[in-house]
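Memo to structure team: turn this sequence into structure tokens by end of day. - J.P.
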Amino acid sequence: MLPGFVFQPSELAKLTIVFYLAHSMAKKEAMIRTFSVGVLPHLIVTGMFAVVLLLEPDFGTALILTVLLYFMLFIGGARVHHLLATGLMAVPVLVYVMMNAEYRLRRMMSFLDPWSDASGSGFHVVQSLIAFGSGQLWGRGLGESRQKLFYLPEAHTDFVYSVIGEELGLLGALLVLALFGVILVRGLRLTGKIEEPFDQYLAFGLTVLLGLLALIHMGVVMGLMPTKGLVLPFISYGGSAMVINLVEAGILLGLSRRRL
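Reply from structure team:
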């Protein structure tokens, strides 16, 4: 932290792990189907990042990095049974981490039935669903959200998609979803056109990372996933998150220009 400036290391960790995985997987591409060379080192390094993030504590980012790792290993050609075996071994750890923190357990219970404690652990999700319901098809209009003024927590960051749903309605929410879909499709198409292994893994990793952040944010605010404070890329208010998202988009644009 510097005077007048706050930076979140977890945001930089996301970009760092993508670069590491892209470099390492491109270097070990011929051995990626070997567990001891192609899978285990990447699990160890990503696991170290995840442990540090859990100590922060930042369970959401640690989970995102883990999912990102498995996506990249799968697209890189790692054996499916290696991924399934390590994934099953990680389940008890995941359950322990969730059960060990009372607030995580409350979030899980409120995810299953947010209305059972609408003024407590389910407050975030309930108010978010009310915002979406108030928006109906066309929305209340820009700046006319009522939930963001008195009821919806962190309306400018963690629940900004709820405000979009209330102010722009179902059509506006679907438009934002479609725009992220365009980013995802274009990023995957770019990945398929690149021949250099490092650039290919990098493009895929950045595309998946942006897609995961957007989908999890939207899933949380619509009650499809347990509550977790994750920003919506390019839209939520924020400093370090916005800077890193723009860096990721800039790298993808740079890789795309090299294909011209």
